[in-house]
Structure formats: C-alpha cells, structure tokens
Amino acid sequence: MFGVSGKTTVITGAAQGIGREFALAFAKEGSKIVVTDINGEKAERVAKEIKDAGGEAFAHRLDITDLPAAEAMAKKTKETFGSFDILINSAAIFSTIKMKPFYEMSIEEYRQVIDVNMTGTLIACKAAAPYMMEQKWGRVINLTSCSFFEGRGGYVHYVSSKAGVIGITRAVARELGGFNVTSNAIAPGATVTEVPRETVNEEWKKKVMANRCVQRTQVPEDLVGIALFMASEEAAFMTGQTVVVDGGMIFLP
C-alpha cells in the first residue's frame, strides 16, 4: 500500500518505544529493517520479532554520537541488503531526563542531550547520505517533538535539541533534493510507551488529554501512518516539512 516493500529501512533507537513500533510496522509492509540502538541486546530482540514474523532484519549496536560507527553501520547495511533507502532518526534521550529549570541545569546535562538528540541525528544523516546520493533516491524521517512548539519548561536541553532537529531536517532537504532524496520531520505529542517515566501518571494523562481535540492517550501506533507516507513515493514532492501528530493540541500558523 505504501510502497516500502523491498526498501531497506534503518531505524535508530529502534530497541523500544516509538522506534520499535516503526521497525515492526515497516517490516510488516515488506521493508528490510536495520534495528540500531545503543542497547544491543534489546535491538536483537526486536530483529528476532521481525524475523519470527517472516520479515528480514538484522540488529546493530550503535552509539549514534560516534560517526565512524554510524558509517560502519551504513556500510554493513548496503553490503547486507544492497541499498540504504530510508532512514528514521528515532534515537533520543528523554525518558531518563530529570525536569529542572534551565538556571539549575548543568552544562554537562545540556551537552549530553544535544549530543545524542541533535548531533546524533546529523551523524546518521551523514552516514546515510552517500548511499542515497549514489542511488538517487532516499527518504530521511526525523523525530522532533511538539515540546519545541510549546516551549515546554523544565526541558530546555530536550526542547533545544528538537529545535535543532527541525533545522537539520530543512538543511538536509535543501542539500539532497537534487538527488531525489526527501527530508521531513514528525513532531509527536506526549506519547505513552512501555518505557517508564517518572512524570507519567493518571493525573498527567488527564491534563494532557484535556488539551487535545482527540481526547485519548497518544501511543506509538499513532505515528506509523505518517511515517509510512513520508517514506513512500506518494510523498516524493514533500520535503523540508514538519508534521505535528498530537491529537490536535498544537495548531501551527
């Protein structure tokens, strides 16, 4: 239906949460999946899920802040599956973040989140670009966040990193458009996954839902449709865009 069958999709941060959901969904549509994550054991489990269901996948432990490691992963992807078609940048630090005002946050905390969430996104794009440029086809899909549009307090490092992801998305779109490579971003709202977070409780869920047009909990499956569309040929003329998927809490002008 979405035209990703036979394509090779690399997903960072795919061992759990939203990344895992993308891996399973794209595999179900016939895509060959590279499950990358800093947690190699969990990545192996996701790859096994895909293979047990009849799909093609391999796991690759990856620290997304390490450019040579990312380039080695991209090379292995091409050697194993013959192409590097779709990149989904889902790896990020979020669930372990401790909320605090920016004036109490250490620069070390700030730099760590920026390094993974923003620089890691650029590193993955750098690793993928030569293969997409050579084959003159590619899709880059980056995960940003509605927190950027909200200017959410207590998360200045996370909000800054996701603002940077939007900038990277637009710059990559400009620079790779001539190679028939598109670059778009998805901005999820607060999404409940299996990953525990101290701030998530029933009171928090009710408060978030009250501000949505669609008043229910957002789950990773809510992001699958837009990701598949962005990866498809139907989205060939869409690039440099950020699409908000949050049940109608943030309205962009």
Helix and strand element order: EHEHEHEHEHHEHHE
Q: What would the CATH topology be?
A: Rossmann fold
How far is the N terminus from the C terminus? 31 Å
Fraction of residues in β-strands: 15-25%
The CATH superfamily is identified as NAD(P)-binding Rossmann-like Domain
* Distinct helical segment count: 8
- Overall pLDDT confidence: 94
How are the SSEs ordered, and which strands pair?
Blueprint (H helix, E strand, L loop, with lengths): L7 E5 L4 H12 L3 E6 L2 H13 L4 E5 L5 H15 L4 E4 L17 H29 L2 E6 L2 H5 L5 H21 L4 E8 L13 H9 L13 H8 L10 E4 L8
Parallel strand pairs: 1-2, 1-4, 2-3, 4-5, 5-6, 6-7
Structure write-up:
With 253 residues, the chain is an alpha/beta fold. The protein has a single domain, classed as 3-Layer(aba) Sandwich (Rossmann fold). Helices cover 44% and strands 15% of the residues. The protein starts with 7 loop residues before the first strand and ends in an 8-residue tail after the last strand. The model has no long low-confidence stretch (mean pLDDT 94).
Features:
8 helices, 253 residues, 44% helix, Rossmann fold, single chain, seven-stranded parallel β-sheet
Quick description:
The chain is of the alpha/beta class.
